[in-house]
Design brief:
mainly alpha, 75% helix
Length: 194
């Protein structure tokens, strides 16, 4: 835990995360200029909602799948390292408690859920390339629900870790870590409502 709890780890990973945010914005425009967002797909929960989002993307479905493969399987590693590093920095424990180890490991659980969600989306969209294909597809309700549940649990893990880093940071007088925890929490919360 102490090896990751360093600004030498945290700062470069946060910079890489910012770079990925820009890439995600550009990639979203490749999927759709003004249609539903990826978060709306993640929150679909039902086949009807899933089909509506994908149908609105039309020809951007293949771009979405490429973005999943090129960006969204790497990004979870970045946020897992960043959040684990931030929490380790905030906790600053020589001998971490079980609770501290839980929050240190939680971002990796979120990353695993992210990969599960991405894999389910790729599986669901394997033979879908446009709006007509989305309309004709027989999407599995269980897989759609599973992808959405994985996505929401992922966000819960990310937010819980950022909040814990803020609490531990301020409690242990590691104010930079506390402030960064608040900032990351504030950055990820709006993603749920886009």
């Amino acid at each position: 835990m102490q090896r990751l709890g360093s600004l030498w780890v945290l700062v470069p990973v946060l910079i890489a995360m910012l770079f990925f945010v820009v890439l995600f914005d550009v990639s979203h425009r490749m999927v759709t200029s003004d249609g539903p967002t990826v978060v709306q797909l993640q929150r679909s929960f039902t086949v009807a909602n899933f089909r509506d989002v994908v149908s609105d993307w039309g020809g951007g479905i293949d771009a979405f799948k490429r973005n999943l493969l090129t960006l969204d399987f790497v990004y979870p590693v970045l946020y897992a390292v960043a959040l684990s590093s931030l929490f380790a920095l905030a906790a600053g424990s020589q001998r971490p408690s079980r609770t501290e180890l839980f929050f240190f490991a939680l971002p990796w659980g979120a990353a695993l859920l992210d990969w599960i969600e991405n894999t389910l989306h790729l599986w669901l969209l394997a033979d879908v390339h446009d709006a007509a294909g989305a309309a004709a597809a027989d999407f599995s309700a269980l897989m759609v629900m599973g992808a959405s549940v994985a996505a929401m649990l992922k966000f819960a893990g990310i937010l819980a870790t950022a909040a814990a880093a803020a609490v531990w940071g301020f409690r242990r007088r590691r104010y930079l870590a506390g402030v960064l925890g608040v900032v990351l929490f504030a950055v990820f919360v709006p993603a749920l409502f886009v």
